[in-house]
Design a protein that fits this description.
- The protein has no helices and 13 strands.
- The radius of gyration is 17 Å and the shape is globular.
- It has about 220 residues and is mainly beta.
- Helix content is about 0%, strand content about 40%.
- A four-stranded antiparallel beta sheet has the order 3-4-5-6, with no helix packed on it. Strands 10-11-12-13 form a four-stranded antiparallel beta sheet, with no helix packed on it.
- It has a single domain, classed as Glycosyl hydrolase domain, family 43 (Tachylectin-2, Chain A, 5 Propeller), CATH 2.115.10.20.
Length: about 220
């Protein structure tokens, strides 16, 4: 039963953004790379893949998996020079849950990595805390190489106030760098913790004072 529900990343091409053709990867399922072997941290599957074009012949796929050994989600990295043949970087996750008592001690997921400069990578990710089961927030980690990360001390965007459309949590971040060193953050908002049914899409903008502090954009 486990094999039938395992998720793996695929690849598709399009010339117009509307009509797509699947690329058949080397794995027997057609996936471009596989989950980890039994006992590996990502043995349960590959979820939420996001591609970063980091440089010439430097294409990176950041992904999440629930670590079979801990039951907590972590972030991994696969590398490719041509977009077709992939290899995982190392045998462990590159970014895992925070220490006990932190805002992300129950798991990290849905990574979205953006390169802002030669030596500056930022990763937006979905964070879970053991103190609020199922309620996700969005946090931002920083790195000089896109592999070793500095964890923030607090989330950049938290669940909405009681009664808000996103009171159940915010996640699935997608960041777009804007002019003036600001960042536009699209995210999934949930009405109930851990329940994506009826989820919607929200947008927040970084503030002038701090590009890692975000304010929701509300309808006029």
């Amino acid at each position: 039963a486990a094999a039938t529900t395992t998720t793996r990343p695929g690849l598709a091409f399009s010339q117009d953004g509307r009509n797509w053709a699947r690329f058949e990867g080397e794995h027997h399922t057609g996936a471009v790379f596989d989950r980890g072997e039994d006992g590996a941290w990502d043995a349960r599957g590959v979820r939420d893949p996001k591609v970063l074009l980091a440089g010439p012949r430097d294409i990176r796929v950041y992904y999440a998996s629930i670590d079979a050994r801990t039951g907590k989600s972590a972030v991994g990295l696969a590398l490719t020079a041509d977009g077709f043949a992939y290899s995982k970087r190392g045998s462990e996750a590159i970014f895992g849950p925070g220490p006990s008592g932190s805002f992300d001690d129950a798991g990290v997921a849905a990574p979205c990595v953006v390169r802002l400069g030669r030596d500056e990578f930022i990763m937006f990710y979905e964070a879970y805390s053991s103190s609020a089961p199922g309620v996700a927030s969005v946090a931002v980690a920083t790195s000089r190489d896109g592999v070793s990360w500095t964890r923030p001390s607090a989330p950049a965007l938290e669940a909405g106030a009681a009664g808000a459309w996103d009171q159940g949590g915010v996640g699935k971040p997608y960041a777009v760098p804007m002019a003036g060193d600001r960042i536009r953050l699209y995210y999934e908002g949930r009405a109930a913790a851990g329940d994506e049914r009826g989820a919607g899409v929200g947008v927040a903008l970084s503030t002038d004072a701090d590009r890692f502090v975000f304010a929701r954009r509300t309808s006029d």
